[in-house]
Design goal:
Two copies of one chain form a homodimer.
Chain A (H helix, E strand, L loop, with lengths): L6 H4 L2 H11 L17 H15 L4 E4 L5 E5 L9 E5 L13 H16 L8 E5 L13 H6 L5 H6 L8 H14 L3 E2 L8 E7 L4 H5 L3 E7 L1 E10 L3 E2 L11 H17 L6 E3 L3 E4 L5 E2 L2 E10 L2 H15 L7 E10 L2 E2 L2 H14 L5 E4 L5 H4 L5 E6 L15 H21 L3
Parallel strand pairs in A: 1-5, 3-4, 3-6, 6-17, 7-16
Antiparallel strand pairs in A: 1-2, 2-4, 7-15, 7-17, 8-13, 8-14, 9-12, 10-13, 11-13
Helix pairs in contact in A: 2-4, 4-13, 9-10, 11-13
C-alpha cells in the first residue's frame, strides 16, 4: 500500500488529460464545446465510453433505475460501504467540455492510479456519473443524485417532459436497455456510500483572481427562487397623467429598489439576481399592464435567507406606484455545509500542492448538495477562466486541473488507508 | 343664414349618432369594437360609405394621391380656401369604434346641418378622412395628413410594407382604383385649407374625471422616443461575487432611477414611460448580459424636452453597475401649439354647452399635428370612459358626443360667417 502522500504523486497526468480530451469529442460542437443533453444519443454514448474505460481497469459496471452509472473497483471487504467519487457527463445545450465531465474523468484517474499502483484497500471504490445534473432537457436537474439520496421520488422525475414532448421515462427506458445490452449490471438495492467526493470547475472567478489552481469547497449556498408579478393598468403613454397611472414597470422599479435595500442590510455574501424580466403589453407608447420578474437569492446561512424571505414577503404586501404585487417562492434549496472531517482532509490534500488555496462556498448547485444528506460529502473546485461556464468558451488550465486531480487522489488514498469502519 | 349660435342647435343629434353606429358596422369584430386596418378591405368600404353619405348631401367626392377622401360642399366663392373638418376612418387591429371615426362623422353632421338649414357661405366646406392615421399596418402613422401638409414625402410613405410584405403603394393603388370606379374625382393640385378642425376622443381620463363632456385642445405634446441598451456580462447568478458583476439589469435599474430623478426636476406635465423592456439571455440564474428598454417622453414645451434630452444623454455617458450604456433617439416630434384665435373660437363654442370645460393639451398624436404646420388648426376632445382607447372597450357617452359635435358645428358656423378672407 502506498504512503498517504503518494497516490496523487503517482497519478498519470498525461493519461488523465487525454481521457478528458477524449470524452470532449462525444457530442462535440463544430465551433468548440459540446452538447450532451441528458439521456440523448451523445449522453448515452458518454455512458458507454465510461463503461469501456472502467472495463479496461477491471472495474465492474453497474446502473440503477435512474440510469446513474457506477464503475466499481472491488475492496478487500466488499460489504463495506464504498468510497464514491464522481460528477456528471450530461451538459447544457451549448456547453464547455469540463462542467461535470472533469469530476467523472478525475474519478477514473483515481481508479487507474489505484489499479496501476496495485493498491489494496478494504472498502470498494466507485466512480459515478449521475443522470441529468443539468436539468437542461428535463427540469429540474440533479435527478439521478437527488433520487439516489432519497430526496426526490422517481415518479415525479419520470413524468417530466422535454420540449418535444418526450417523457423522461421514455428516454430513460432506451438508455437502460442500452446499458444492459452493453453488459452493465442492474443494481436494484440502495447503496449508502461511505463518502462522496466531487471535483468540479468553480464556475466562478474567485480562484483565478486569487491565482489558486484548486481549493476545497466547504458547502453549497442555499438558493431561493421567486416569481414576482406587478399588476397595473395598461394605458396611453401620452394621455395618462402621472396621478392616474398604475404603471407596472414603475411599480416593479420601486419594489426592486426596496428589495435591493433589504439585501444591502446583510453581508456581502448575499447573491441577488434578477435574470428574467418581461412587460405586457410591451409597447413603446403603452403604460405597462404587468411586469413579471424572477429573483435568484443565495446565501450560505439559512438564517439570512429566511430573514430576506420574510422581508421580501412584507414588501410584496404593499402597493408600489399604485400597483399590486404577487410574489411566489418557486424553489427553496437550503444551504448545505459539508462534512468537517472531509473538508479538512481535502484542504490538506490541496495544500500539499497549493499552500495558499482558499476555502470556498459553492454558488452553484452540484450533485453533492443531495449526497450530503446521505453520507459525508465534500467537494474540490478547480479554477476556470473568467468564471465562464455553460458556454463553449469555458476553459481550465491543464496545470490547474492537474493539481486538482492529484489532490483528489491524495485525499482518496488517505481516506482508504485511514478510515476502515 | 342662421345666427352665429344656431348651427350647433340645429344639428340633428339622432342622425349624427345613427351615422356613428352605422360606420361601426364596417369591419366590426364579433365581440365588439372594429378592425379597419388602413387600405384594407374594411377601410376601403368605409371610404365608399363616406362618399355615399356625401352624395346624399349633394357634396362632391374627391381623393388625392395618398387616398385621402374629401367631401366638398361648394361655397359661393369656390376659389376661397375651404374650411376643412375631419379625422380618420382607419383603426388599430382591435379597436374601439370612435377613435378617428367620430371626427369624420361629426364633419358629416356639420355638412348635413349646413345643407338642411340651406346655409349659404362664401368658402367651401370640406370633410376629410385621412389615410393611415394609426400606423398599425404601415408604420409610421398619419401618412395622409403629413404628406398633405408637406411634412413627409410620398416616396418614403409608399415604400412601407406591412407584416405580409405588401407595400403601401400596392394597397394604395387598389384603393385609388376603387375610389375612381365609384365616381370620386382625383385632385392632383395641392390645397391649402383656410382652417382645419378635428374632433377626437380624448384617449385620456381627464375630462371624465372633471365631469366635462368636451373641451378645446390647445396643442399637442412633443414626443421624444429613445432606445436604450445597457451592456454588461452574462455570468452565473450563484458563483459571481457582487464585486465581479457587470449586471445589465442592475445597471438599467440604477440608470432608470437617475432618469426618473431628472424627470422629477421638471413640472408634472412631463410624461415619462418605459413601455418595453427586455433582458438577454433572460434566464433566472444567469446575470443579464444586456438590458434594452424604450423611453417615451412627452411635454408641451420644447424647452423642457430639450433639457431632458440633454440630461438623458449625460446620464448615458456614465457607467451604471459597471455596465456601459448606449442611448439612441429614435423619434423626435416637436410640440405643436394650435392657433390662438381658433382655440378661442372653439373654447367659446364648447362653453356655450359646458361653461366649466377645461382646456387640454393632447398627449396623443393626431392628424392635426401636421395640419397645424399648413393652416390655422385646432381640435376638440370629447370625454371617453377611463381613458381607454385602441381597445374594443373604448366608450363615449352619447350625451358627451352630442355636446362635442354641436360645439364643432357652432364653431364652424361662426367661422363661416365671420371669416371671409
Amino acid at each position: 500500500m502506498p504512503k498517504r502522500t503518494t497516490l496523487g504523486e503517482h497519478l498519470d497526468g498525461e493519461r488523465f488529460w487525454s481521457d478528458l480530451m477524449d470524452q470532449a469529442r462525444i457530442g462535440a460542437l463544430a465551433g468548440g464545446g459540446l452538447r450532451r443533453l441528458t439521456l440523448g444519443e451523445a449522453d448515452n454514448r458518454a455512458r458507454l465510453w465510461l463503461m469501456e474505460k472502467g472495463e479496461a481497469l477491471d472495474c465492474s459496471a453497474h446502473y440503477d433505475a435512474l440510469g446513474n452509472v457506477f464503475l466499481r473497483r472491488e475492496g478487500q471487504n466488499p460489504s463495506l460501504p464504498p468510497l464514491l467519487i464522481g460528477s456528471h457527463l450530461d451538459s447544457q445545450p451549448s456547453a464547455g467540455v469540463y462542467d461535470g465531465a472533469l469530476g467523472v474523468v478525475a474519478g477514473l484517474a483515481v481508479l487507474r492510479t489505484l489499479s496501476e499502483q496495485q493498491v489494496a484497500h478494504q472498502r470498494p471504490v466507485e466512480v459515478v456519473s449521475w443522470t441529468n445534473e443539468e436539468g437542461a432537457r428535463f427540469a429540474p436537474g440533479a435527478s439521478g443524485s437527488s433520487w439516489f439520496a432519497g430526496r426526490r421520488d422517481a415518479e415525479t422525475i419520470l413524468a417530466a417532459q422535454d420540449d418535444d414532448g418526450i417523457a423522461f421515462k421514455e428516454a430513460l427506458t432506451e438508455c437502460l436497455a442500452l446499458l444492459d445490452a452493453h453488459g452493465a449490471h442492474f443494481r436494484s438495492t440502495s447503496v449508502v456510500p461511505h463518502t462522496f467526493l466531487e471535483l468540479h470547475i468553480e464556475q466562478g472567478p474567485v480562484l483565478e483572481a486569487q491565482g489558486a489552481p484548486a481549493c476545497v469547497v466547504t458547502g453549497i449556498q442555499g438558493v431561493y427562487w421567486y416569481e414576482v408579478e406587478v399588476n397595473g393598468q395598461a394605458n396611453h403613454a401620452g394621455t395618462t397623467p402621472e396621478a392616474s397611472r398604475h404603471d407596472a414597470f414603475m411599480g416593479a422599479h420601486a419594489l426592486i429598489g426596496a428589495l435591493k435595500a433589504a439585501v444591502a442590510a446583510h453581508d456581502d455574501q448575499v447573491r441577488f439576481t434578477i435574470g428574467k424580466f418581461a412587460l405586457a403589453p410591451n409597447s413603446v407608447n403603452t403604460i405597462a399592464q404587468q411586469a413579471r420578474f424572477t429573483i435568484d437569492l443565495r446565501h450560505p446561512d439559512p438564517a439570512v435567507l429566511d430573514a430576506l424571505d420574510g422581508a421580501f414577503r412584507q414588501l410584496a404586501k404593499r402597493e408600489w406606484s399604485s400597483c399590486t404585487v404577487h410574489l411566489e417562492a418557486t424553489s427553496r434549496v437550503a444551504p448545505v455545509a459539508f462534512d468537517e472531517h472531509l473538508i479538512d482532509a481535502l484542504d490538506e490534500a490541496v495544500k500539499a500542492y497549493c499552500p495558499q488555496a482558499p476555502k470556498l462556498v459553492s454558488g452553484a448547485f452540484h450533485d453533492a448538495i443531495h449526497l450530503a444528506h446521505l453520507c459525508p460529502t465534500a467537494m474540490l473546485f478547480t479554477a476556470c477562466r473568467a468564471g465562464i461556464s455553460h458556454h463553449p468558451d469555458e476553459h481550465i488550465e491543464r496545470g490547474d486541473a492537474d493539481v486538482a486531480v492529484r489532490a483528489l487522489a491524495h485525499a482518496a488514498g488517505q481516506l482508504l488507508t485511514t478510515r476502515k469502519d
